[in-house]
Write the C-alpha cells for this entry.
Amino acid sequence: MRKILLAGCGVALFAAAACTSTTKVSTVQPGDQKLSCAELEREFVNLDEVMNEADDNKGVNTANVAAVVLFWPAAVGNYMDADKAQDLVEKRRTHLMGIYDDKGCSA
C-alpha cells in the first residue's frame, strides 16, 4: 500500500511540474506617465521578452509534452495561461505606445 501511495505522489509531483507559468504584466502601472522615452523603450523590450516566453510556453517543450502524456488538461492550461499573458502584453504595449506618442518619443 505504501508503494502505491509513493508512486501516486511521484506521478502527482511530476504532473505538477508539467505545468508552466508565463509572466503576467499589469496593463497599467503606477508611474507609467512619468516614464522617459528611454524607459518606455526598455519596457517595450521587456514586453517582447514576456511575449517570447509565452510563445515558448505555448509550443512544444518538455513541460507540455509531459503534460500531454500524464495529464492532458495541464497542456491546455499551459496554452491558455500563455495566451492570457500575450493578451496582457498587447494591452500594455498599446497603453505605453499612447504615452510614447503623447511624449513625442517617436519623433
User: Anything to note?
Assistant: Confidence is low (pLDDT under 50) at residues 5-19.
